[in-house]
Structures are given as C-alpha cells and as structure tokens.
From TrEMBL:
Residues 166-217 are annotated as: Disordered. This is one of the proteins that binds to the 5S RNA in the ribosome where it forms part of the central protuberance. This is Large ribosomal subunit protein bL25. The keyword RNA-binding applies. Residues 181-217 have a biased composition (Acidic residues). Belongs to the bacterial ribosomal protein bL25 family. CTC subfamily. GO terms for cellular component: cytosolic large ribosomal subunit. Keywords: Ribonucleoprotein, Ribosomal protein, RNA-binding, rRNA-binding. One of its GO terms (molecular function) is structural constituent of ribosome.
Length: 217
C-alpha cells in the first residue's frame, strides 16, 4: 500500500504564525524539486513521524497537497533536542524516471574475529552516497564484518553494490576497520642505589669559581 502524507499550504510566514502552527501539532515544511517550484507547507507531526519510521530517509511516498499527490522523499529535517520535536522538514519532489544521488545510512552486521581477539572496531563513515532511481534507493547499506580480522579493513570497493544502484564514494575509502587495543606505556625504571644529582650545588660551585677568578684578576 502506498503511503500518503497530507499537507496544507502555508501562506502566512510570520513568526507568530509558525509558533501557532507548531502549537497545533503541525510541522512547518517546504517541498521543492527540479520540476517543481518551492512551496511552503505544513504536515501533521504524528503523521510525519509515522511516515518517516515506515519509509526512512530514502523512501519514496506520496505527499498530498490540495488533493494533488506528488512523489517525494524526506530530504532533510531539523530536530530540536531540547524540546524533543521536529521543527522543520524539507521534502524533495523526485522524478521517478531520473537517477538521483542520496546519502544512505551504513549498518554494521555481525561480530568480527578481530574484536574477539581484543581489537577495536572503528566505523569511519556512517553514510555512503548512492546513485539510483528514486524507487530503487536502498534503506541502508549493510556491512558484514564476520570475516574481518585484526588490522583488517573494509573499503567501499569491497562492498557489493546492488544491481540497481552504484556508490559515488572513492573506492579506496575505508568504511570499517579493526585496530589493535592501545598499549599502555611502560613505567620508567627508577634506580634507587645511586644518589640523585644535585644540580643546584654544581651550578653554585661554578658561580663561586667564577667569582674567585674575577677577584684574582
């Protein structure tokens, strides 16, 4: 079943109106695309969160405005951590017949042998750029590390791209790696048999010798 998110057009852009929009349980938003002029809208907060959970960042769904439906994706959104709420959303009107680039989350699967040996798994990137038709963009890129040994790494070129999408990142870019645990520095050995060197006394003797030489002169 196709997901449909309803939206209403916003015409009043005063700050007081934006505040009222949020107080009514709606989120100010904007929708735009290559073949669509930017349009200010508002969507129901609960419906948006439900849609985002179901479709993800790269999912394509229908945005209904004044009875007309448009294929869109969630291009970006702003989240207020203090208020724990979404404060603004950018929707992108996708052309279903034209490939596009999108940042797709990276998900690490499995337990690496290198970690079992005491190594530390380092995830270098959390998103990878992918090019595909909008409806063929993956929800996430799964990286299996079940064969990753100590000092090993997985590069972009090691990932098998799907039949319908390709990676835009540098093939040599590191995605995940296993590094040895940090070695604790050795404590310096302290020799207790020898007496400590008295630097001040030596410098003092030098000064006295200089004074006596000056008096003899």
């Amino acid at each position: 079943m196709v997901t449909v998110l309803k939206a209403a057009v916003r015409e009043d852009f005063k700050k007081s109106r934006l505040t009222k929009t949020r107080q009514q349980g709606n989120i100010p938003a904007v929708v735009y695309g290559k073949k669509m002029e930017s349009k200010a809208i508002a969507v129901d907060e609960i419906d948006f969160i439900k849609t985002m959970r179901e479709e993800g960042k790269t999912g394509v769904f229908k945005l209904e405005i004044d009875g007309q439906q448009t294929d869109v994706m969630i291009y970006d959104y702003q989240f207020d951590t203090m208020k724990n709420e979404v404060v603004h959303v950018d929707f992108y009107a996708a052309d279903m017949n034209v490939e596009m680039d999108a940042d797709v989350p990276v998900h690490v699967d499995g337990e690496a042998p290198g970690v079992k040996e005491g190594g530390v798994l380092q995830q270098a990137v959390y998103e990878l750029s992918v090019r595909a038709l909008p409806q063929q963009l993956p929800d996430q890129i799964n990286v299996n590390v079940e064969e990753l040994e100590m000092n090993g790494s997985i590069l972009v070129k090691d990932l098998k791209s799907g039949a319908n999408y390709e990676f835009n990142n540098d093939p040599e870019e590191v995605v995940v790696s296993i590094t040895p645990p940090d070695e604790e520095p050795e404590e310096p050995e302290v020799e207790t048999d020898e007496e400590p060197e008295l630097v001040d006394e030596e410098s003092g003797d030098g000064e006295e010798q200089t004074d006596s030489e000056e008096s003899n002169e």
